[in-house]
Amino acid sequence: MRNLLKFIVFAAIGLVSYNYYYGNEVEKARSEKVIDGVKDVFGSIKDLAVAEKEKFDAGKYDKALDKIGNVFKDVKEKSAELGDDLKDRLANLEDEKEALEERIDEKKKEGLWTEEEQAKTKEEFKDLIKKSEELFKDLENG
User: Fold this and answer.
1) Which of 68, 81, 94, 124 has the most other CB atoms within 10 Å of its CB?
2) How many CB atoms lie within 10 A of CB 108?
């Protein structure tokens, strides 16, 4: 399936290129329109990536981590009847949140806040959210 997709992409590139250089006026115009469209798409993707990076650098996820921390704190304060298992899970989630915050701060200070590191952090953030949702469901049911 992957090879088929590669073939289709290369065939499309080849067809557009051929028509751009050797086609009649209509084919050249279509090819130019396709190339302009591709440029627009890649430009938009670049703009989106830059905007998201700026948001991330500005603390977009820091605020979310703070909110999660506040929820953990509220749950802890309001639920004296939590079972030991739920208390342990909550403590583990708090530890994960703090470790994530510390790693973000360290990487930014060290100048190692690369796109790869941001992607890794985003996945860990999603995992933390998922675990939090599971804990909250167990709190509702328990």
Assistant:
1) 68
2) 14
Place of tokens 């798409």: 41
Mean pLDDT of 10-29: 81
DSSP code of 23?
A: S
Q: What are phi and psi for residue 29, nearest 5 degrees?
A: -65, -45
Q: Are 90 and 76 in contact (CB under 8 A)?
A: yes
Closest CA to 38 of 50, 23, 20: 20
Report residue 48: phi and psi, to 5°. -65, -45
Is the whole model's pTM more than 0.85, yes or no? no
- Buried b or exposed e, range 72-81, using 16+ CB within 10 angstroms: beebeeeeee
Q: How many CB atoms are located within 10 Å of the residue 142 CB?
A: 11
Name the percent of the chain lying above pLDDT 90.
0
User: How many C-beta atoms surround the C-beta of residue 90 within 10 A?
Assistant: 19
| pLDDT range class, residue 52, cuts 50, 70, 90 | low
Choose the weakest-confidence range: 1-5, 47-51, 72-76, 125-129.
47-51
